[in-house]
């Protein structure tokens, strides 16, 4: 969802920031203009190589080096706003030392200069490798907004932060290592937004810190397993916070399993009736609190997330919420119905406003409603399901986006190991699906019922390790398909000649499918196919044979391949070629000189190939000198923290199935996106 920055900037600060941003963009545009003029006559090694010829200018994009920016800023003594546009280059750089700054956005990890920016009102740190803020942050007495975003290593905030008595908004987003806020956060009497509060049993970290804060916007309370009783929970005084419209509650994975305590605590955390978005994770109670069954209290709700509330047997009458548009339910072992309330009269529709529904890991879920007579889900457009083997879906003619996900070797709640399979006729009641994503489906072929999806426009297959081929019967029915993406399917070895039926296919992507070494000969009939992406698998980084027979291919993207076949130089219809992340790729085929229609060539992070393509000096230069637009981007060195992150952080891997099984991270990610 769109960033909520404009929603939190208040009163005069909104106008101030708008004016300062306009000033910044005027200065930035001037920097870009000067840089563009200079780059026509000189090269800047290490970022983007600019190509020139005597009679023809070759257009390429470029980046401004930080040395140039900070050098120019030394003379900008009255600058009020600085926003770093290039976070990938700035982790090792220092902050600008302009004492007049009022607004600063940076990803720097060297923050010692903060103490000199005493006029600062607005500070955003993002993509920084910091582990905490410096104690000198207490000198920023005029600071009103502090935003911390995507700081993977940020674990705590200094206690000196509570000395910032003018602080109005403290926003933390996607900082997954954060385990503690400063003690006595309640001393910040002017605080109006506190996106995250982490409970600890020690004094200064309890829910009582929230009692007198007039908070609005979003609040995510974590660590509720440390709240011993309902009296401590009531101290948060949530029911009086009328400006709070998003409330999320989390119990940790090591939470106390005494469900009675959780039920009393949740009962005491009653929200105000203005709440529009609500979610909770790790709740161990068997029933929901009375206030969640009060439809009038929750009548404004639009979003609900219920994540890993394992013991819950029954949900509130969510189907009767008039404005509910998004519902996510995951991890409830005994739940049989999403709504088991009664519906009387043909005019009463269940989930009448719901547009997006996600149902994950609900092994005993049988139906959406107990009352099958009621009309339901008239506006539902997006449906995602995973591990719901007993679910029988109603007729859903409005669904246009469907995601089906299974997990191999899933352990159910009794410890039994099972293999997820395709649910019982899942698409027979959904004939208008335009986008279908299938993940972790463990069968050798796709089910024939997919052939009925004659209006499907996009099909994505991800992590289907047992899938060996795409059956001709299925492909024949997909007559409207325009986009086909196949990712991480280890045993897929044949797209089959049925590809000829995809006469409207415009884009094909094949990512990390090591057994797929050749494309069917019928690819030469796909005259609408204009865009192909190939991402080689580490164990077999090759380009599949047959690619050259696609008759009208205009855009080709190649990642992680170790060689380019000579026939690539015969693909004369190509207009754009992207080559990236190929550390072993050493040269281009000599036939590149025949690609006379090629207008754009991008080479990104291919260190050995880059040497061969140096302007005039590289051995391959003569084969690409005719290309009007050529861009050569060097390898960006990882910082030390980034290298460590790559080694230990499983969330960085798209193939790691544990990503889907870590509720702490998944729930936090969803909350941060809302």
TrEMBL record:
Residues 207-331 form the R13L1/DRL21-like LRR repeat region domain. Residues 448-634 form the Disease resistance R13L4/SHOC-2-like LRR domain. Keywords: Repeat. Pfam families: LRR_14, LRR_R13L1-DRL21. SUPFAM superfamilies: L domain-like (SSF52058). It comes from the Eukaryota. This is Rx N-terminal domain-containing protein.
